[in-house]
């Protein structure tokens, strides 16, 4: 018996490639942990035309209101896309981000759930961002440790005299 050739159940949508800078951006979150184990989140915004990263927002907690505030700051600096591609995370389906996008004529394009191939260019961008954040956190942690040691040494020398 001959097997039937498997065919896709739907048409595959090819994402159009942008022609100029700031035409299309992608946004997503990258999670990491500090040396002390505390979790941090990074909102990465990437211009899909030239793979430039106009902004990375790092904090312990990032809400939809904060995402809209970051986009407003970028808009005030003259950077505003026509389209932003995002996943279906709670920060991206928030009323605050939807209101900001509507007010400024920016289309939010949500990738289909379970289809990470639609954001492959973002996946390629996360690795350098993660390496930068890790090295910065390790460097900052080392500086703090050295500062704490020098203060402790001064205190010990002062008490021994």
UniProtKB/TrEMBL annotation:
Pfam families assigned: rve
Keywords on record: Plasmid
InterPro entries: Integrase_cat-core, RNaseH-like_sf, RNaseH_sf
Plastid keyword on record: no
Chain segments carrying region Disordered: 137-161
Limits of the Integrase catalytic domain: 14-123
MF terms (GO), sorted A to Z: nucleic acid binding
GO biological process: DNA integration
Protein name: Integrase catalytic domain-containing protein
Organism the protein comes from: Paraburkholderia aromaticivorans
């Amino acid at each position: 018996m001959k097997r039937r050739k498997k065919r896709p159940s739907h048409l595959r949508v090819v994402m159009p490639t942008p022609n100029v800078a700031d035409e299309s951006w992608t946004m997503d979150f990258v999670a990491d942990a500090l040396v002390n184990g505390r979790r941090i989140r990074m909102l990465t915004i990437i211009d899909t035309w030239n793979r430039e990263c106009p902004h990375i927002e790092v904090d312990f907690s990032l809400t939809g209101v904060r995402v809209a505030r970051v986009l407003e700051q970028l808009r005030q600096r003259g950077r505003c896309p026509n389209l932003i591609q995002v996943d279906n995370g709670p920060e991206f389906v928030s009323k605050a981000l939807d209101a900001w996008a509507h007010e400024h004529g920016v289309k939010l394009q949500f990738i289909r759930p379970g289809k990470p191939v639609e954001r492959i260019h973002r996946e390629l961008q996360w690795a350098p961002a993660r390496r930068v954040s890790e090295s910065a956190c390790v460097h900052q942690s080392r500086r703090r440790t050295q500062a704490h040691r020098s203060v402790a040494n001064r205190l010990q020398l002062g008490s021994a005299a």
